[in-house]
Structure formats: C-alpha cells, structure tokens
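In response to reviewer comment 3 from the previous cycle, which asked for concrete evidence that the modeling workflow produces usable outputs, we include below a single protein chain processed end to end. The sequence was submitted unchanged, and the resulting structure tokens are shown without manual editing.
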Amino acid sequence: MAMMAGSAGGGRRRRRSRQSGVINEINMTPFIDVMLVLLIIFMVAAPMMTAGVPLDLPQTKAAPLNSDATPVTLSIKANGQVFLGEAELTDEAIVGKLAEVSKTGFDERIFVRGDKKVDYGRVAQVMSIVTTAGYKRVALVTEVDQR
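The workflow returned the following structure tokens.
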C-alpha cells in the first residue's frame, strides 16, 4: 500500500507542475494601457503649464525659434503690469527675481511677452531694465500669423 500511495502522489505532483508551470511571457497590455492614459493626460495638461498670464499677443509671420531649455518669460499685460510666471512684479523687483530664477546667470534667455494693446514705451522700458541689469539674450514673443 505504501507503494501505491507513493506512485499516486508522484503522479499528482507531475500534473500540478505541468498546470502551474512558469509563465515565460510578459503581459504588455496593462503596461500599454497605463502609458496611453499618461500620454493623454500630459497632452492635455502641457498647454496649460506654458504661460501663466493670458495675453493677446501681436501676430507676425516670423518662424518660431527652436529652443531646448525652458526660457524665463516676463509678461506685460495691457495695463502695464509685469509678471514673472504668475507672480506680479514691480519694476524694482524685476532684476532680483530674474537673478533668482536664471540658471546660467546673464546668459539666460529672457522672453518678453507684451499684450498687443500695451504701450510700446512700456515694453521698451521693461526690456531696458532687463538689458541694463546685464542680460544679453532678451527677445520679444509674438504669435505666428496663420493667414
């Protein structure tokens, strides 16, 4: 009887090992589903994170510049208020805040976004403050004319 029990147990073990063998394939479907959801989330969220202050920018036919790094952006609203991101700045605080956020010092690229209704003299005044402080790479931002 001992032999029969031993042989029966051995048969059962073999069947179990065949049924519960190691799976040598990775199921990629859940991974792909998660990646597609993340892609959609980032596609929707990315445009909302670019500029903090809504402006009506002037339109030009100039081609956009290719830029690898995210530049520091000063925004000037139609009433002349200056913003760095979403924080409002006074004229005296512009240089100090630029020094805080610039990673490469005076070689940092500074973009100035001015509403199309803002006085041109105000835009020139802000650009003068930035360039007088020593920043060499100051540029104006416009929208591309789609006509």
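Strands lie at 59-60, 72-76, 82-84, 87-89, 109-114, 137-141, 143-144. We consider this sufficient to address the reviewer's concern, and the full set will be provided in the supplementary archive.
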